[in-house]
Amino acid sequence: MIASSHSADKKVYEIAKLTNDVKELRSAFVDKRGRLMRLKKESYVEAEMKKKNISISLNPPTKIIVKSKKQ
Amino acid sequence: MATTETNILNRLYFVAGCMFVFALAVVFKLCTIQFVQGDAYRALAEERTIEDFEIEPNRGNVYSADGSLLATSIPKYDIRIDAIQPKAIVFEKYIGALADSLSVFRGKSTSYYKNIIIKARNNKNRYFLLARNISYSDYIRLRNFPLLNLGAIKGGLIVEQTTRREHPMGEIAARSIGYERFDEDGNATRAGIDGAFGEKYLQGQKGKRLKQKIGNGQWKPIKDYNQVEPKDGYDVYTTIDVNIQDIAHHSLLGQLEEYEADHGCVVVMDVKTGEIKAISNLGRNKKGKYYERLNYAVGESHEPGSTFKVMTMMAALEDKVIDTSTIIDTKNGIKYFYGRTISDSHRGGYGKISAARALEVSSNIGLATIADDHYSKQPEKFLKHLRAWNLDKTLGVSIVGEGIPDIPKPGASNWSRNALPSMAYGYNLTMTPLQTLAFYNAIANDGELIKPRFIKSVKSFDKDIEVFDKEVLVDEICSDNTLAKIRDILKNIVIRGTGERMYSKTFSMAGKTGTARTDYANFEEWKKDRKYISSFAGYFPADNPKYSCIVVIHKPSSKKGIYGADVAGPVFKRIAQKIYTDTPIIDEVEALEFNSSIVNADFEGYYKKAQNYKKLMPSVVGMPAMDAIALLENLEVNVKVKLNGSGTVKKQSIDKHQKLQPNQTIFLDAS
């Protein structure tokens, strides 16, 4: 009875610790993802590229689709 | 002797008697506690060690259309130090290094941090704040600083974790994404989407669980299931497109800074579906910095100015009281209406021009004349159109606090004989930018007026809980004929009208500029410091529109510029351009069987050489240098090739058919 109660207590501590880990990892994930999203923003890329003298094209890219003749 | 014995015995009986009575009393007390008061004590014990815990549900996330996180709940950390916990020797040893690290982390000087921590120690502060509300990665960094890395007992580190609502994209659309906040009395402030959908979807339901206290401040669940299971909140998917939003935000910010304006907003809407692709609201604080303060686009009802002329023109065209070619006399730029002058911004006026031209050049007199000539006797006929176009009502968007439009009626306090001519060019009535945009969107959407919407769907993981579809407010705002005419004029405004300065050869736009006076109640004051609202509403591309957009900028510095095309127009143009350059032009070609005997012969020759020469030097004279290098560098022997000049090879440093040595250098001369 006492032994099993203690083992249950031990599990509770473990769960508390794991929950904390989950929170930390989630926090780390959102943190990193937020940073990635900010780095991916076009305005950021534009500013970075300006240093290398590359700016946004005034013309859209052209997609050429070649229709193959299969007979 | 005998006497002494009796005496002792008597005393013994007395003591034994007392002890017996005491024992009885103990037994009695035990029984009372156990049986009489037992229930009360057991209840008390339970109360102290068993508690009903509320389990907080996870609040749902807010996502953009492409699945980027816009709002989520994450743990944040407050870091404190128990300044008297570390031993003196440890404290002395690490305080300098800790102050140094904090200075790198926070930016203030090393001595500053050293002083405040020493002061905290002298004041016996056991709860001294080092950093508040920091992210996980910062927390990990801080935890490894000298002294703090010794932990709670040796170093005095105290970490507190709280869950906070975070916008991972930062400032972008912060106000429209919004939040839900409660004050001490439990009153909620609900801004934006997070606020509007908080209660219904994001919040979730609290769970309940009975727990018993065990050591270390932990609680152990008594049963292995929850009395009430917590229900996590649903995720809300918005219609916001992160890329368009980003461009809208930054181009608006750029214009506001350039023109030192008070505040502004921009909204981009998908023509066919009514989805809001971007919404940005920026206001200036006292320090002159711009940030998302209020949802101006949704909440601020103001006099629209010239963008409203389109409505006037459409009403007149729809009633067939004028045609686009009807000649209107705009005089020399000043005209009297019932004892009041209306003037045009163009000095000297436009004289006699067509109705279409009057709208293109945004003539106040032109539009006021049209309204006065045809509707002064029957204003109801004009107002009927505005009502049919839903302009007197709110759109009923999901965000809380939509501005209420005001369209005066005869008999109202703001109605007079001058009301109608004023309304014709956008004064004496108020609307929000979103309401104006919805109307322009209807023009772009072949006359179908749809409600702007911010939400695509509500999901629980991958399961749709609720999907929002487009809501049609008015099926057809006018005849196809009127629509074609007005679209033509809007297109021409950018080509040769007031929007001329925005014109681009590569992509098309259509829309109407607006420059309205604001805060002019005291006209003398206004003349000293002229305040305007510059706007541009329209859509792009001009034919087959995809997106509609409105830009409104309040109180630009009149020294730098006031006109809609200069202040608001560039924001519109930048967005239109971005969407244009992001959409690839698709070109389809039939498969080409290209046969040229020269090319084929050339290729054959090269191929043959590449096959035959593996270790011997081939003759490359006469070959293009480009081919010669490729050929030599791909031999089985590893050789180096040095080329002088360009074009066709004229000379090779090693004769043909010579055996090549590894790492040998071959010089080629070309011209």
Model description:
Chain A has 2 helices and 1 strand. With 71 residues, chain A is mostly helical. Chain A has a domain at 27-57. The radius of gyration of chain A is 27 Å and the shape is elongated. With 671 residues, chain B is α+β, with helices and mostly antiparallel strands. Among the domains of chain B are: 2-36; 55-236, Penicillin-binding protein 2a (Domain 2) (Alpha-Beta Complex); 598-670, Trypsin Inhibitor V, Chain A (2-Layer Sandwich). In chain B, the strands form 8 sheets. In chain B, strands 2, 3, 4, 5, 10, 19 and 20 form a 7-stranded mixed β-sheet that branches. The model of chain B has no long low-confidence stretch (mean pLDDT 88). The interface between A and B is large, with 35 and 44 residues. Strand 1 (62-67) of chain A pairs parallel with strand 25 of chain B.
Low-confidence stretches of chain A: none
| Order of helix and strand elements from N to C terminus of chain A | HHE
The number of helical segments of chain A is 2
Distance between the termini of chain A: 82 Å
Short description:
Chain A is mainly α and about 70 residues long. In chain A, about 70% of the residues lie in helices and about 10% in strands.
Topology at a glance:
The complex is a heterodimer of chains A (71) and B (671).
Chain A: H1 2-40, H2 42-50, E1 62-67
Chain B: H1 2-36, H2 38-49, E1 50-55, E2 62-63, E3 69-81, H3 88-106, H4 110-122, E4 128-134, H5 136-143, H6 151-155, E5 157-166, H7 174-177, E6 179-182, E7 188-191, H8 192-196, H9 198-202, E8 207-213, E9 219-221, E10 235-238, H10 242-259, E11 263-270, E12 276-284, E13 290-291, H11 296-299, H12 309-318, E14 327-329, E15 334-337, E16 340-343, E17 352-354, H13 355-360, H14 364-375, H15 379-388, H16 419-424, H17 433-444, E18 449-450, E19 455-460, E20 463-467, E21 472-474, H18 480-496, E22 510-517, H19 523-528, E23 532-540, E24 547-554, H20 564-567, H21 569-582, E25 585-590, H22 597-612, H23 625-633, E26 640-644, E27 649-652, E28 665-670
Parallel strand pairs in B: 2-10, 26-28
Antiparallel strand pairs in B: 1-8, 2-3, 3-4, 3-5, 6-7, 8-9, 10-19, 11-12, 11-24, 12-13, 14-17, 15-16, 18-21, 19-20, 22-23, 23-24, 27-28
Helix pairs in contact in B: 3-4, 10-21, 12-14, 12-18
